[in-house]
Amino acid sequence: MGSGKSSATGSPLSLDSGASTDRGLHRETNEDSLLAEYPVFAVADGMGGHESGEIASGICIRTLQESGLVGQPLVELKAEQLRSVLAEADANIRAATGGRAGTTVTGAVLGQEAGSPAWLVFNVGDSRTYRLSRGVLEQLTVDHSEVQELVDGGHISAEAALVHPRRHVVTRALGTGGDLEADVWLMPALDGDRLLICSDGLVNEVGDEAIFEILVSVADPQEASDALVKAALSYGGRDNISVIVVDARATGGGGGSGRI
Structurally, how many domains does the chain consist of? Predict the structure, then answer.
């Protein structure tokens, strides 16, 4: 998948992104879907087997794509508005599949808060969004999964969660089950931010230290996306792998450099 540089007129930040996806070494199909169109970036990991998961993730991404957010410069987007779009995606998936398929989704929208650029990060399920900023890699989202609940409750360690037999069981998804509530976080968008948005096919194969090394050593976002997918394949590629890397840079218009 291609990369592209994009910026909005008058915006203090421009975005440069790259995206890559692979069905992995053991899956017959790729049930992941991606969206990387300014200012919306999202990865959806379909569930349901064969074509059902692909349908669910595709509907989710199309709903985001058709929400009116794509191409909008620094909208004042509220968490409730984004949750409404994701609820629409949930309804669309249920109508198309009869509740037999679902999808995780995570990502970020570049908008503004009080006149300054801001990320609206969202998550349903166990796909993840990270931010590399000021040399620190931080997982922004919290997995909706059985093992995350065990970790949060102090029953198992984070290391044990990586090999737990129920590590793939999610507790929230769009299109199936009862709990579709999206977590949404609003945070300043900084000059130099690098976002990583990915399905669990990456993080279940590649540890945070190796992810960090690739993100800090590969400057081009498309090359970084490709390198992360290749790393997941080299470690076994047991699942579909999808990666989006987004770089934010000050345009020189003021307000985009430093903390805002």
Answer: 1
| Extended strands (E) in the chain | 4-7, 13-22, 32-37, 40-47, 102-113, 116-124, 128-133, 136-139, 183-188, 194-198, 241-250
Domain of residue 151, residue span: 17-250
Gap between the terminal Cα atoms of the chain: 32
The Cβ-side half-sphere exposure at 28, using a 13 Å CA radius, reads 5
Q: What is the CATH number of the domain that holds 27?
A: 3.60.40.10
Q: What's the token pair of residue 218?
A: 């590969």
pLDDT (tens digit per residue) in 133-149: 999 999 999 996 656 55
pLDDT tens-digit readout, 31-76: 999 999 999 999 999 997 656 899 999 999 999 999 999 998 888 8
Model-level pTM? 0.88
Does residue 112 contact residue 188 with C-beta atoms inside 8 Å?
A: no
